[in-house]
C-alpha cells in the first residue's frame, strides 16, 4: 500500500469537516444529554424512543413500530421484551393473523412516558436553540436522512 502523496493528503478533509462525523458525534452528545433523565426513568435511549413512538399510536404491530424507529424486528423484539418485563408494554398476537404481534403501552408505560416528555424539555433547552431554530434544524436533519435513504435505496429497517 503506497503512502498518500503530499498533494493527495492536502485534498483530504479534516475529520471535523465531515458531515457524517458531525451527525455521529452529535448523536453521541444527545445520548449523554439524555443519560441523566433516562437513568432516573430506568430506561435505555432505545426503550425511551419506543415508548414515545407508541405514544403516537397505541396498538402497533411490531413491524410498523420497527419502521417508525428504523429498527429491524430482530433488534426491536428484545427491547419490547424488556419493556414488557418492566410492565410498560404488552404484546399480543393478532386474532386475525397469529403471525402478527401487536404492542400497546400499559398504564405504567403511559405514566413513565408522560414523565419522560416533561423531562425532555430540559434536554431541548440544552441545545441552546430557540424553538423555531430547533424545529428548523430537526426538519433539516429529517430531510437529510430521508434523502440519503432514498438515494441509496436503503431499506429503512435494515
UniProtKB/TrEMBL annotation:
<keyword id="KW-0805">Transcription regulation</keyword>
<keyword id="KW-0238">DNA-binding</keyword>
<dbReference type="InterPro" id="IPR036390">
    <property type="entry name" value="WH_DNA-bd_sf"/>
</dbReference>
<protein>
    <submittedName>
        <fullName>MarR family transcriptional regulator</fullName>
    </submittedName>
</protein>
<dbReference type="InterPro" id="IPR000835">
    <property type="entry name" value="HTH_MarR-typ"/>
</dbReference>
<dbReference type="InterPro" id="IPR039422">
    <property type="entry name" value="MarR/SlyA-like"/>
</dbReference>
<dbReference type="Pfam" id="PF22381">
    <property type="entry name" value="Staph_reg_Sar_Rot"/>
</dbReference>
<dbReference type="InterPro" id="IPR055166">
    <property type="entry name" value="Transc_reg_Sar_Rot_HTH"/>
</dbReference>
<feature type="domain" description="HTH marR-type">
    <location>
        <begin position="16"/>
        <end position="146"/>
    </location>
</feature>
<dbReference type="InterPro" id="IPR036388">
    <property type="entry name" value="WH-like_DNA-bd_sf"/>
</dbReference>
<keyword id="KW-0963">Cytoplasm</keyword>
<keyword id="KW-0804">Transcription</keyword>
Amino acid at each position: 500500500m503506497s503512502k498518500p502523496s503530499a498533494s493527495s493528503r492536502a485534498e483530504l478533509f479534516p475529520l471535523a469537516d465531515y458531515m457524517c462525523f458531525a451527525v455521529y458525534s452529535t448523536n453521541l452528545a444527545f445520548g449523554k444529554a439524555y443519560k441523566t433523565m433516562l437513568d432516573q426513568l430506568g430506561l435505555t435511549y432505545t426503550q425511551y424512543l419506543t415508548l414515545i413512538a407508541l405514544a403516537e399510536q397505541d396498538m402497533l404491530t411490531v413491524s410498523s413500530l420497527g419502521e417508525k424507529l428504523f429498527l429491524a424486528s430482530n433488534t426491536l423484539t428484545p427491547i419490547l421484551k424488556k419493556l414488557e418485563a418492566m410492565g410498560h408494554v404488552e404484546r399480543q398476537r393478532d386474532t386475525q393473523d397469529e403471525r402478527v404481534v401487536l404492542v400497546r403501552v400499559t398504564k405504567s408505560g403511559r405514566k413513565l412516558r408522560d414523565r419522560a416528555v416533561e423531562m425532555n424539555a430540559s434536554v431541548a433547552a440544552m441545545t441552546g436553540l430557540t424553538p423555531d431554530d430547533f424545529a428548523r434544524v430537526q426538519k433539516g436533519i429529517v430531510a437529510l436522512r430521508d434523502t440519503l435513504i432514498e438515494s441509496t435505496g436503503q431499506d429503512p429497517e435494515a
